[in-house]
Design goal:
- The protein has helices at 2-31, 33-37, 50-77, 84-114, 125-128, 131-158.
- It has 159 residues and is mostly helical.
- The protein has one domain (2-158).
- α1 (2-31) runs antiparallel to α3 (50-77), α3 packs across α6 (131-158) and α4 (84-114) packs antiparallel against α6 (131-158).
């Protein structure tokens, strides 16, 4: 029943990942790291400083760490070690759940619709329109594909 285990693992780890992602986003916002990485229009700043580099490094560790942990949980839930394809599907499924959560809950419901004052979001097109967030979602899919593949290879190599 690898498929049942796969689906359950993607949902469980993906759900936990959404909670951890929310904490990560709040940390990035309140530490000032997010504002060092993006301008008021939501574009990544060209000029890098220590905070923006730290933010990028933290994001990479968060992403790969979560996908790796998800693969380890999946391996622990099955009798035989899964192959590269199943590990990739598991990793990408987890990524996709978190990516959809970011688009629908964080970007659309919180940032665009609610637009809470305590987040001190600028009143610009990026923070009031769904279109740039959807474009970012689409652009993030290849990142998820590649990160999931690399994580799966690393998982096999370590396991």
């Amino acid at each position: 029943m690898k498929l049942d285990n796969l689906i359950l693992n993607v949902i469980q780890v993906g759900g936990i990942g959404c909670l951890v992602f929310t904490a990560f986003i709040l940390f990035m916002a309140y530490s000032g790291i997010a504002s060092e990485m993006r301008d008021e229009e939501g574009n990544f700043k060209k000029k890098r400083n220590l905070k923006s580099v730290l933010g990028a490094i933290l994001f990479v560790f968060f992403l790969f760490g979560l996908l790796y942990a998800g693969n380890r949980c999946f391996i622990a839930s099955v009798d035989e070690p899964p192959g590269l394809l199943l590990l990739w599907i598991n990793s990408f499924g987890i990524f996709l759940i978190i990516h959809l959560y970011d688009l629908i809950i964080i970007d659309y419901l919180v940032v665009i619709k609610w637009h809470p004052k305590f987040l001190k979001l600028p009143d610009t097109y990026y923070y009031r329109s769904f279109r740039p967030h959807f474009k970012g979602f689409v652009r993030g899919i290849p990142l998820g594909i590649v990160a999931s593949f690399i994580t799966s290879i690393i998982t096999i190599g370590i396991h």
